[in-house]
C-alpha cells in the first residue's frame, strides 16, 4: 500500500510521475486527509484524485496509459501574461 513518513501517522501512497521526474527520481505521493475537523482542510480521496486526472480506460497499451497519466504531472513555465477583461 503506502508508507508512513516521520511518525505522523499519515499514510502516503504513490500517485504517479512525469517522464522528466522519473529521470530525476522524483515521484508524486498522496495523503488522503478526510478526518480533519475543519472541512476546508480535507481533500479528495485517492480514487477521486485518479478520477480527476481523466479517463484512461480506452488505453490498452500500458506504456501509453502511463504516458497519458504523466501529462497531468508535467511542469510548465510561464511565458506570456494574459490579462482577464470582464
Describe the structure.
The chain is of the alpha+beta class and 86 residues long. It has one domain. Helix content is 26%, strand content 13%. The protein is built from three helices and three strands, in the order E-E-H-E-H-H. The protein has helices at residues 19-23, 46-53, 62-70; strands at 3-4, 11-16, 28-30. The chain has a three-stranded antiparallel beta sheet. Strand 1 (3-4) and strand 2 (11-16) form a beta hairpin. The longest helix has 9 residues, at 62-70. The radius of gyration is 16 Å and the shape is extended. The mean pLDDT is 80.
Q: What overall form do the CA principal axes indicate?
A: extended
Classification by helices and strands: alpha+beta
Spatial gap, N to C terminus? 47 Å
Order of helices and strands: EEHEHH
User: What composes the largest sheet?
Assistant: 3 strands, antiparallel
- Summed up, the domain count is 1
Instruction: Please work out how many helical segments DSSP would assign.
Output: 3
Helix share, percent: 25-40%
Segments where pLDDT lies below 50 for 5+ residues? Answer: none
Strand content: 5-15%
Radius of gyration: 16 Å
Please, what is the average pLDDT? 80
Strand line-up of the largest beta sheet = 1-2-3
Beta-strand segment tally: 3
Amino acid at each position: 500500500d503506502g508508507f508512513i513518513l516521520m511518525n505522523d501517522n499519515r499514510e502516503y501512497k504513490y500517485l504517479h510521475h512525469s517522464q522528466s521526474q522519473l529521470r530525476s527520481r522524483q515521484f508524486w505521493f498522496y495523503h488522503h486527509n478526510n478526518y480533519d475537523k475543519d472541512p476546508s482542510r480535507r481533500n479528495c480521496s485517492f480514487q477521486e484524485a485518479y478520477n480527476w486526472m481523466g479517463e484512461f480506460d480506452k488505453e490498452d497499451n500500458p506504456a501509453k496509459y502511463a504516458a497519458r497519466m504523466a501529462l497531468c504531472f508535467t511542469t510548465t513555465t510561464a511565458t506570456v501574461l494574459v490579462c482577464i477583461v470582464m
